[in-house]
Design a protein that fits this description.
Elements: H1 2-8, H2 10-40, H3 45-73, H4 75-91, H5 93-99, H6 102-129, H7 136-162, H8 170-174, H9 178-190, H10 193-212, H11 228-232, H12 236-257, H13 259-265, H14 273-297, H15 303-323, H16 326-340, H17 343-351, H18 359-368, H19 372-386, H20 389-392, H21 394-410, E1 419-421, E2 426-428
Antiparallel strand pairs: 1-2
Helix pairs in contact: 2-3, 2-6, 2-7, 2-9, 3-4, 3-6, 3-19, 4-6, 4-10, 5-6, 6-7, 7-14, 12-17, 12-18, 12-19, 12-21, 13-14, 14-16, 15-16, 15-17, 15-21
């Protein structure tokens, strides 16, 4: 009977875990979309970086509403709403490409990311509760690995669909006649139509599958009352942890967002945008390797020590990229992926330590810290426009330095009095 019960969970688990692949796949296509829209919409570095602002801004604005929606209407409805939003956002790429309207592109990305926010807030707790409790960490680790595969595949697929086989230099583009330039830019913009319409159809089909298949009903827990937010804000290590999430994700998103632009600025003979995009896939592959190995190493090393080691190496690699050039610089940035892999789970774990009944509210705040992915890339774009792309990489360096501070001192929690869990009516100690 036990084996039958487990086998009955296979299809629901397979469908739900596949969602992690989809949103990681689409999120990492953005790194290819940035240079593509920069060219087709004739943008500067700051303007093109707003792709990430639109995407990660949705995580900041939608995560709490998504949590309340799921608490009221359940996990299945949360998944369906997320998929429908993602489909709508992907479909809006068609009118955006036809008109070459950059704000419409940003709006489409925001709607798409809002859908992914619903999925992310829904899927992780659902997977953890869909099956035996003692296997929850194993299921989540496997799901994270599937998501990482999507992150590896995204840049590769994006390069195939969105980057031209034959590149035209900026100098050559500027020499085109107005009519020829208009034709060229329209052709570039139209390249996004086919892949994003395919994604829209795929999201609709998966939403239909989620609607029709048997998904075990699991009661979603509502977020704790807003009054607890003020208590969470008194926990210094949690507040500093939110800033650490901001810094970590901002640095990582910024690095990969400007990777192609940076690679082209090095003037390496024969290096195309498609070649540079392969480095981003390798970056994400190293993230996957780092997460798998980190799951083992963190059992033997104090998490704050591992976090400090990884941030020091990440800083050294950014400095190496800044001071050198050529392929060595690209290899240095790519290698950073191996050392950012454990940053988020370690920061998250340290930030919710000793919070007891405040853990859920703190978790929501930490997810909102992902807004770093929306704000750091535009800052890098501004620095690049004002000076040079190389100097923009000093921004993620500063971010990693802050994460290092958190690993040394910021993570240390302050003892709290016993807290009462309103929902359960029992006392929870914060140790």
């Amino acid at each position: 009977m036990k084996n039958k019960a487990i086998s009955n969970l296979f299809v629901p688990l397979a469908v739900v875990i596949s969602l992690m692949f989809f949103w990681n796949f689409c999120r990492n296509i953005n790194d290819i979309l940035i240079p593509h829209l920069k060219r087709s919409c004739q943008l500067n570095d700051f303007e093109s970086s707003l792709v990430q602002s639109a995407f990660f801004g949705a995580y900041f604005l939608i995560s709490l509403p998504a949590g309340y929606f799921i608490g009221k209407y359940g996990y299945r409805n949360g998944m369906i709403v997320g998929l429908l939003c993602a489909a709508l956002g992907a479909a809006l790429f068609y009118p955006a490409a036809i008109t070459r309207d950059y704000p419409l592109f940003l709006g489409a990305l925001f709607i798409m990311a809002a859908g992914f926010t619903f999925l992310e807030v829904t899927v992780t707790p659902y997977i953890s509760r869909l099956g035996p409790e003692h296997d929850a960490s194993s299921r989540l680790s496997f799901a994270a690995a599937v998501g990482s595969l999507g992150a590896v595949a995204g840049p590769y697929a994006g390069a195939h669909f969105l980057l031209s086989e034959t590149e035209m230099s900026e100098t050559a583009i500027q020499q085109l006649t107005p009519a020829a330039l208009e034709t060229f830019l329209n052709q570039e913009a139209h390249m996004v139509i086919k892949p994003y319409l395919i994604l829209a159809i795929l999201f609709l089909l998966v939403a239909l599958v989620v609607k029709l298949i048997h998904l075990p009903e699991i009661k979603a827990e509502t977020l704790q009352r807003a009054g607890r937010l003020s208590e969470v804000l008194k926990s210094k290590h949690t507040v500093l942890g939110v800033l650490a999430v901001f810094a970590y994700l901002g640095a990582e998103v910024g690095l990969v967002s400007f990777f192609i632009r940076y690679a082209k600025s090095l003037n390496i003979a024969g290096l195309t945008e498609k070649d540079a995009a392969v480095f981003i896939s390798f970056y994400m592959l190293l993230v996957l390797i780092g997460r798998v190995s980190g799951a083992y190493l963190l059992k033997k090393i104090q998490p704050q020590q591992a976090l400090l080691f990884c941030t020091v190496i990440a800083c050294l690699l950014v400095v190496t990229a800044f001071l050198t050039g050529g392929y060595l610089s690209l290899y240095a940035i790519t290698a950073i992926g191996l050392f950012t892999a454990i940053m988020y789970p370690v920061i998250f774990t340290l930030s919710i330590k000793k919070l007891g009944g405040l853990t859920k509210v703190a978790s929501s705040l930490l997810i909102m810290g992902c807004v770093g992915g929306a704000l750091v890339p535009p800052l890098m774009g501004y620095v690049s426009d004002q000076s040079a792309i190389q100097y923009a990489f000093l921004v993620p360096l500063i971010c990693f330095v802050y994460v290092g501070y958190y690993a040394v001192s910021g993570y240390k929690s302050v003892e709290k009095p016993v807290l009462k869990d309103d929902a359960a009516g029992t006392e929870l100690k914060t140790e």
